[in-house]
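Appendix C reproduces, verbatim, an entry submitted by the partner laboratory led by Prof. M.T., so that reviewers can inspect both the input and the predicted structure.
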Amino acid sequence: PKERELAGAKTHGASIGITQGINLYKLFSIWYDICMTDLSISEARAELSGAIALAEKRPVTISRHGKPIAVLITPSLYEKFVESMEELEDIVDFDKASTENDPSIPWEQVKKDLGLF
């Protein structure tokens, strides 16, 4: 079936490079490398089912007075973003823990303390 395009929708693609770390770059490049569709809030309201159909194929940015206010994305893409953010938080926590001067606890002791062996 032919993909339905909404009247007034503008499609564009963009790429960015982020020098603050490979994982952060990966997160944002996933977002920007995907072709996006822009709709005004009026267009999205008038054609909600069409906007949702477009969002099944690519993210749809909804704008008010030319400024983005929301993005429609698929649940699977949302999950990828959440997982990426959680991974970044884990990396930050690991980096912070590795710079602390607290003595390390051997893995065998941790397992014993938790009753895992």
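Strands lie at 10-12, 36-40, 60-64, 67-72. Additional entries are available on request from the coordinating office.
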